[in-house]
TrEMBL record:
GO MF term list: ATP binding; phosphorelay sensor kinase activity; protein dimerization activity
Protein name: histidine kinase
Catalysis performed (reactions): ATP + protein L-histidine = ADP + protein N-phospho-L-histidine
Organism ancestry: Bacteria, Pseudomonadati, Bacteroidota, Cytophagia, Cytophagales
Its EC number(s): 2.7.13.3
First and last residues of every TPR repeat: 124-157, 164-197
Keywords: ATP-binding, Kinase, Membrane, Nucleotide-binding, Phosphoprotein, TPR repeat, Transferase, Transmembrane, Transmembrane helix, Two-component regulatory system
GO cellular component, one term: membrane
Transmembrane segments: 352-373
Recorded superkingdom: Bacteria
Gene3D superfamilies from the UniProt entry: 1.20.5.1930, Histidine kinase-like ATPase, C-terminal domain, Tetratricopeptide repeat domain
InterPro entries per the UniProt record, alphabetical: HATPase_C_sf, HATPase_dom, His_kinase_dom, Sensor_HK_TwoCompSys, Sig_transdc_His_kin_sub3_dim/P, TPR-like_helical_dom_sf, TPR_rpt
Length: 644
């Protein structure tokens, strides 16, 4: 357990020390871990070992081979972090081979996986190398955008050294993109960050880029100052000066008309040139060519120009070889993939045929077994059906007998219910007729009481008042006297009108239409408004209850019109349809406020109740184009009797 913990610490720290008892080389370590049972520790260790072995591989085939093995483990585990890790390392491998577009493709996939895994380290790694790819392609705007993304991520991590390195790369991109002011600003910011760090190897790069930027602006004083600062930082860091930096200082001094210093730095650059990379030697040779040319040494200038051309061609050839190697690898990979796919297709086809043959045999055997089993089941079912048919025949006979008895009982019970329902309907009709007769008798009694008692009393009061001598009355008293006589006369006429119309004998004897005609004639004689009855010639209503309720509703409506509508003309129209008697009362008064339609008075509520008792309807509508109101009453022609 203790050794496993120690090993986990070693792997997490990024250092792979061979276990003396197990492995002494990366290949041996890989073989050891590949034979271990699958576990998260085994998988992450193998991915790191494959990446390490890829970095030390001599050709592209081997590098991609090892990284693809790590990718398969990451893909199998659905680990976004390790998918980002493997894609990023494949991208940097293509970047080192000079295949920038292929590198960008893998690095952007690495960014996507890193964002899903929320791995800031892998995001930084991918964006940083994407910036390098765009810089190699001289697409400096995209390189600037990528480096800004790196700076943003380092700020989130509060990683000052990383932020400083990204700022230096951004400054170099600004310089190459002909944005010297932006380059100087961001490089000076990087130096401000480095001042807060105990030690930084990147300070020399910041000074170098500032010197190169000021040289482009022909500010030779600042260029030399930062170049010397870079030289001091290089001596402190590496223990030796940088040949490219020395060549830059030589170019600065030659441009500033300081040939002695320029020659000194040029000779030192020539001495240290062998220690630099091919790309750096190419840039240094170009700087030396320009330096010697500036202070007039044509022979040396020509020599270094030839060396620059040679180094550039060598670098281009090497880059071309790397690209050819990549293309060859991709071609070989496609060939291998095609051969593998052909083998897989052939194996799939053979497996399909074999499986089809096995399936056919199994289906045949299954059908044979199914037929045998089905035959046995059919024989058994036939026996069961014969037995069931016998039982059903016996049950059918019993049901037939029961049915005959049941039908007789149902018919008898139905007849009893029909007779009972008829009796109940007849009884209910008798009750309704008795109720209507009772109401009619009560109305006759009330009308008689009003006419004989109250009418006689009002007539007597009027007669006594008319016999009073008016000679002794003052003019005011005479006016009051005349007012009282007029009120009593109106009251007497109202009582006579109510008593005559409460249940007129003509309604009882002749029906609704003659009663309405007489009512309209009486109203027209009063002179308060003009009344009109509109009806077809052949209309008759034989149901006394309908006639009585409609007549009562008309009285209520006329009373409302005379009291409230201030109408000059009232039309009463009576029609019939297949299902209804329809009575409409229309006046030309000032109408009814729509809001008051929902607030029923006592009179309107009485009308509604009367129409409900007939299973009818009652509607009020104010006329839009002209003044007035229309009230529509609908009563079914055939009254339904309540059945119990």
């Amino acid at each position: 357990m203790r050794s496993a913990i120690i090993l986990l610490i070693i792997v997490a720290g990024g250092g792979f020390f061979a276990l003396k008892s197990k492995a002494d080389t990366p290949i041996a370590a890989i073989k050891y871990w590949e034979n271990e049972p699958k576990s998260p520790l085994r998988d992450t260790t193998l991915i790191r070992l494959y990446a390490r072995q890829s970095a030390s591989a001599s050709n592209l085939d081997s590098s991609i081979f090892w990284l693809q093995k790590g990718f398969k483990i990451a893909f199998r585990n659905r680990s976004n972090h390790w998918l980002a890790f493997t894609h990023n390392r494949i991208g940097t491998t293509y970047l080192e081979k000079g295949v920038n577009f292929k590198a960008i493709e893998y690095l952007f996939r690495g960014v996507q996986y890193a964002e899903m895994a929320k791995s800031v380290n892998e995001q930084v790694y991918a964006w940083d190398h994407i910036g390098d790819c765009y810089a190699n392609l001289k697409s400096y705007e995209k390189a600037i955008s990528a480096e800004k993304k790196v700076i943003e991520l380092y700020i989130k991590k509060n990683n000052l050294p990383g932020q400083m390195r990204a700022m230096i790369d951004l400054g170099a991109a600004y310089r190459e993109n002909e944005q010297p002011e932006e380059a100087i600003s961001i490089l000076q910011q990087s130096l401000e960050i480095s001042s807060g760090l105990e030690y930084s190897n990147d300070r020399a790069d910041a000074y170098f880029n500032l010197a190169a930027t000021f040289l482009k602006q022909q500010d030779y004083t600042e260029a030399e100052r930062y170049g010397l600062l870079a030289l001091d930082a290089e001596d402190d860091g590496k223990g030796r000066p940088n040949a490219e930096l020395l060549s830059l200082l030589s170019l600065i001094n030659s441009s500033n008309a300081k040939p002695a210093k320029a020659l000194e730095f040029a000779e030192r650059a020539e001495y240290y040139l062998i220690y630099e990379s091919p790309v750096m030697r190419e840039r240094a040779a170009f700087n030396l060519f320009k330096a010697y040319k500036a202070f007039g040494d044509s022979e040396k200038a020509l020599l270094w120009h030839e060396k620059f051309i040679q180094l550039r061609e060598n670098n281009r050839a090497e880059t071309q070889n790397k690209r050819i190697e990549v293309l060859r690898y991709e071609y070989d990979a496609q060939q291998r993939e095609s051969q593998l796919q052909a083998m897989i297709d052939d194996m799939t086809r053979q497996a399909y045929l074999r499986n089809a043959l096995i399936l056919g045999i199994l289906i045949f055997l299954g059908l044979a077994l199914a037929l045998g089993y089905s035959n046995r089941l059919l024989v058994k079912r036939r026996r069961e059906l014969d037995l069931s048919n016998l039982q059903l025949t016996q049950v059918g006979k019993m049901l037939k007998q029961t049915n005959a008895t049941l039908e007789d009982r149902v018919a008898a019970r139905t007849n009893e219910l029909r007779v009972a329902n008829h009796n109940l309907t007849r009884k209910n009709h008798e009750i309704q007729e008795a109720l209507f007769r009772g109401q009619s008798i009560e109305r006759e009694r009330v009308a008689s009481e009003l006419h004989n008692n109250l009418g006689s009393l009002l007539s007597g009061v009027k007669w006594r008042l008319e016999s009073v001598e008016l000679e002794s009355f003052t003019p005011d008293e005479k006016k009051q006297y005349q007012s009282v006589v007029s009120l009593i006369t109106d009251a007497y006429n109202q009582v006579r009108h109510i008593s005559h119309n409460l249940l007129p004998s003509i309604l009882e004897k002749q029906g609704l239409v003659p009663a309405l005609e007489k009512l309209i004639a009486d109203l027209n004689r009063s002179g308060r408004a003009t009344f009109e009855l509109v009806r077809p010639e052949d209309i008759t209503i034989n149901d006394k209850r309908i006639s009585f309720e409609l007549y009562s509703c008309v009285l209520e409506l006329i009373n409302n019109i005379l009291k409230h509508a201030n109408a000059s003309h009232v039309a009463i129209e009576l029609v019939k349809t297949d299902l209804y008697f329809v009575l409409m009362v229309t006046d030309d008064g000032h109408g009814i406020d729509q809001e008051k339609l929902f607030v029923s008075g006592k009179g309107l509520e009485n009308i509604r109740q009367r129409m409900n008792s007939l299973n009818g309807s009652f509607a009020i509508r104010s006329l839009r184009n002209r003044k007035g109101t229309t009230v529509t009453l609908r009563a079914p022609r055939k009254q339904q009797r309540t059945e119990v």
